[in-house]
């Protein structure tokens, strides 16, 4: 399954560091968004939930620790892995002691190769769909290895686009996806597709999901987009 590229948010106030991180993460095939301070980072997370955050400890105004603490106390952002960057190992000890909930810590100056390995490790942990596990929502199950979708035990026939759409919805049930976000995730950012195309494929997905009966699990959120459940 060609899964959408994970998006990584880099929060780092030093432009050179930001550039190095962006360059290397993009080379790994990730989509990258950047913020140079904690406030912007928190706003950006609300606008588009990243799959992972690389977060510098020392930031102007709202510190990296505070950003981490806030995200880890919010139920909607708690599961997003955070890798904290810190200048010295004593700082790492302190950050650990503060119980910020960060998922990993990397000491500067870090090896880019090692940091990328840690990014991949965190993403493997939180993006089970890319590992061929079965996603379940109510009576729907999606197996990304075999590309099979069952509802109430019955096999459903889905086109590749509908399959990727459903996989995206099932990764985060309840989350409202805008048409633009679905375009990014399912079609890819570099491809020009009209947002109405999303409506067409969501319509097909709905039809396929209800072909053997059962209620429509997809919700149209007026002015916002679509959600599962
Ligand atoms: Ca810094």
- Largest beta-sheet characterization: 5 strands, parallel
| Number of structural domains | 2
CATH third-level topology of the largest domain = Rossmann fold
The structure class reads alpha/beta
Strand content: 15-25%
CATH H-level name of the largest domain... which superfamily? Answer: Response regulator
Any idea of the CATH class of the largest domain? Alpha Beta
The amount of helix comes to 40-55%
Unreliable stretches (pLDDT < 50, length at least 5) are none
Gyration radius over CA: 19 Å
Biggest sheet strand order reads 2-1-3-4-5
Rounded mean pLDDT score: 88
* Number of beta-strand segments: 11
SSE arrangement, N to C: EHEHEHEHEHEEEEHHHEE
Please give a structural write-up:
By secondary structure, this protein is of the alpha/beta class. It has helices at about 15-25, 40-45, 65-75, 90-95, 110-125, 160-170, 180-185, 195-210, and strands at about 5-10, 30-35, 50-55, 80-85, 105, 135, 140-145, 150, 155, 220, 225-229. Strands 2-1-3-4-5 form a 5-stranded parallel beta sheet, with helices on both faces. A 4-stranded antiparallel beta sheet has the order 6-7-8-9, covered by helices on one side. The protein has a two-stranded antiparallel ribbon with strand order 10-11. Helix 6 (about 160-170) crosses helix 7, helix 6 (about 160-170) packs across helix 8 and helix 7 packs across helix 8 (about 195-210). It is elongated and about 60 Å long. The mean pLDDT is about 90. It binds calcium ion. Calcium ion binds near residues 14 and 59.
């Amino acid at each position: 399954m060609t899964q959408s590229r994970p998006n990584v948010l880099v929060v780092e106030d030093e432009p050179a560091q930001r550039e190095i991180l962006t360059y290397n993460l993009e080379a790994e095939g990730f989509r990258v968004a950047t913020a140079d301070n904690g406030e912007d980072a928190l706003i950006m997370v609300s606008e588009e939930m990243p799959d992972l955050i690389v977060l510098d400890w020392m930031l102007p105004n709202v510190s990296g620790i505070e950003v981490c603490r806030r995200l880890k106390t919010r139920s909607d952002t708690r599961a997003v892995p955070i890798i904290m960057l810190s200048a010295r190992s004593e700082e790492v000890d302190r950050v650990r002691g503060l119980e910020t909930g960060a998922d990993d810590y990397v000491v500067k100056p870090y090896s880019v190769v090692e940091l990328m390995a840690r990014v991949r490790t965190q993403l493997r942990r939180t993006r089970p769909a890319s590992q061929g596990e079965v996603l379940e929502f109510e009576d729907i199950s999606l197996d990304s290895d075999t590309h099979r979708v069952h509802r109430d035990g019955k096999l459903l026939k889905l086109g590749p686009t509908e399959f990727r759409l459903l996989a995206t919805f099932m990764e985060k049930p309840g989350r409202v996806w805008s048409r633009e976000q679905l375009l990014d995730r399912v079609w890819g950012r570099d491809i020009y597709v009209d947002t109405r195309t999303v409506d067409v494929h969501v319509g097909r997905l709905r039809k396929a999901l209800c072909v053997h009966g059962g209620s429509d699990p997809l919700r149209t959120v007026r002015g916002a987009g679509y959600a599962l459940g």
